[in-house]
Design brief:
The protein is an all-alpha fold and 167 residues long. It has one domain. The protein contains seven helices and no strands. The longest helix has 28 residues. The chain is globular, with a radius of gyration of 16 Å.
């Protein structure tokens, strides 16, 4: 199933240059706009800085956990395993779990705890980034699912422990 889904999504790459450019944008550059948009929203609505601690704290923590997992578990990226992969981005580290998925799903989940509607929007943005990374040939779908699960769990634990610590 992992191979089938990867080939299905990645098969759209390499067909049209405009689609490849769009895929590269969402897989790589869009992440910066997502972070910037959150900071702008927080600033314009005068959110207290504490409201950003859970989303950003859990996102950073999730990314650290990804690096720890990758240190012990070396799962190759699709373009290393499959010769016919349409590789649109350069990545050199291992693929499992996805660092982008873990970071952005943790961020979105942390936002969701405070604002359901905005959090749902950011969960959608995290999904777009994640699927684009499969499209670009640098992640397996299972990498994305594991990263998303890790990010969501990290945000939940961060929020839970921060409430426990503040009481």
């Amino acid at each position: 199933m992992n191979l089938y889904l990867f080939q299905l999504i990645n098969s759209f790459a390499g067909r049209y240059s405009w689609l490849d450019k769009l895929g590269i944008f969402f897989a790589d550059w869009f992440a910066y706009l997502v972070i910037l948009s959150l900071l702008v929203i927080a600033w314009r609505h005068r959110w207290p800085k504490q409201l950003l601690v859970i989303p950003f704290g859990s996102a950073v923590a999730a990314r650290v956990v990804v690096e720890i997992i990758r240190f012990f578990y070396h799962h190759p990226r699709p373009f290393v395993v499959l010769a016919d992969t349409h590789k649109l981005l350069d990545e050199s580290s291992y693929s499992f779990p996805s660092g982008h998925a873990s970071f952005f799903f943790a961020l979105a989940t942390g936002i969701y705890f405070y604002n359901k509607k905005l959090g749902a929007c950011y969960l959608l943005l995290a999904t777009v980034i994640s699927i684009a990374r499969v499209f670009a040939g640098i992640h397996w779908p299972l990498d994305i699912l594991a990263g998303a699960g890790l990010g969501i769990a990290t945000a939940y634990l961060t929020a839970r422990f921060s409430k426990t610590a503040s009481q």
